[in-house]
Structure formats: C-alpha cells, structure tokens
Amino acid sequence: TIKERMKATPHSNGCLKEKDVEHVLKRFDEEYKASLLKNKFTIDTSSSKIGESFEELIQILQPYI
C-alpha cells in the first residue's frame, strides 16, 4: 500500500525510497513491539480515507478523554 501511494502521489522532496519501504516497516514494527508504552493501538489505513481513519482514532480515544 505504501509503494502504491508513493507511485500515485509522488513527493519531489520525499526521503523514503521505494527500495527502503520493507526495511522501514520491519524496523517500525520492531520498535512498536519494544515500546515501553503499555496501552497501544493500531489503525489500518490501507483502505480507508483520512476522515474515516480520524473517526476511528476518535472512537478509540473517547474512553480516555
């Protein structure tokens, strides 16, 4: 999905290269799992629009507000 989005809407000054996407995702996952934060969540944005992802975030955070 990241590679598809990079191709669909390229950024002239983007620092992430297509060849590095898998490595970055792997490292992100490793750091996420190693995080000292106990209460974590993920939002799958692969098929949702920005507004939909934001609504999901609000629903997740609502009990803590």
Which features characterize this protein?
single chain; mainly alpha; flat
Could you characterize what this model shows?
With 65 residues, this protein is mainly α. The protein has helices at 2-8, 21-34, 50-61. The chain folds into two domains: 1-34, no CATH class; 38-65, no CATH class. The longest helix is centred in the middle third of the chain and has 14 residues, at 21-34. It is flat. The protein starts with a helix and ends with a helix. The mean pLDDT is 93.
Q: Helices, strands, pairings?
A:
Elements: H1 2-8, H2 21-34, H3 50-61
Organism: marine metagenome
Protein name: Thymidylate kinase-like domain-containing protein
Low-pLDDT stretches: none
| Sheet of most strands | none
Question: Helical percent range?
Answer: 40-55%
Cα-atom Rg, whole angstroms?
15 Å
Q: Give the CA-based shape.
A: flat
The fraction of residues in strands falls at under 5%
Number of domains: 2
What's the tally of helices?
3
Number of strands: 0
Our measurement of the CA-to-CA distance between the termini, rounded to an integer number of angstroms, reads 32 Å
What structural class should be given to the helix and strand makeup? Answer: mainly alpha
What can be said about this structure in brief?
This protein is mainly α.
